[in-house]
Amino acid sequence: MTTAAGTPKLNRTYKWVGGLLGIVVTTVVFIVPFAFIFLTASKSGQEASLLQFSWPTEWHFVENLVEVIQARDYILVTAFINSTILTVGSVTLMVVVSALVGYVLQRRKSRWNPFINFLVLAGLIVPPAVVPTIWVMQSLGIYKTLHGLILVEVAFGMAFCVLMFRAFVATIPRELDEAAIMDGAGPLRLFFQVIFPLLRSVIVTVIVVQSVFVFNDFQNPLYFLPGDKGATVQLTVYNFLGQFNAQWNFLFMDILLITIPMLVMYIIFNRQIVAGMTSGAVKG
């Protein structure tokens, strides 16, 4: 029989074991692969081809870095510019449009709401159709264009964003809407001056999550924006992969470079992501 005095000690033991287990799992899942990428990116081509988790006999980090940046007339620089434009444009449209849709769905109930909710959920479940999407883009004249790919990313990411904003809008009292309307605010002024600033935590969550998704997207740029001029960072891995051989040191250096920006962004905004997720889940 456990005494009251022994219960706090037992709880502390569980917390200590749980924390230690969390550290071990985090190390194995995240830190070990990242260390393998860094070490392989610092080796010579012959040593990297062995794909062993070991220290390099000679460090070639700077040489590999310069070679990757200069490869194919600095295509990695072009790819970073394209990916930045793609990410900023897509996420900006997602935030504004999804916030508006989520607000209207939450505040204005109508007989169309169940059908619209079905479409939103379908956007999460139904996989995208590549060939029909290409046909539509060709008909509109936006195939193989950066702004066309931005619209594709927005369409594929809207469902998640709408659900997040709708859940968070439910936590905002309707009295704020009524007070703003009594003060003479129109619909757009009501939303952008009263409601939108209150969505800060969920906005940060959507920005970070969707930025990571769009920046790391490989499939959509491959299908809808082929060619070197529209290359994104994820497609640059093809620079060092051939049919019969691979330059593993350059490949892992390329992976390291395109991983760092989103990793830093996630670390900085990790607390805001958790706050936005839990607010929408608990109060929505």
UniProtKB/TrEMBL annotation:
InterPro entries, sorted: MetI-like (IPR000515), MetI-like_sf (IPR035906)
Cellular component, GO annotation: plasma membrane
Gene3D superfamilies, per database record: MetI-like
Pfam families in the cross-refs: BPD_transp_1
Localization: Cell membrane
Segments crossing the lipid bilayer: 20-41, 74-103, 115-137, 149-169, 190-215, 248-269
Keyword Transmembrane helix in record: yes
Source domain of life: Bacteria
Gene Ontology annotations of biological process type: transmembrane transport
Membrane topology: Multi-pass membrane protein
Family: Belongs to the binding-protein-dependent transport system permease family.
Protein name: Carbohydrate ABC transporter permease
Species this protein is from: Demequina lignilytica
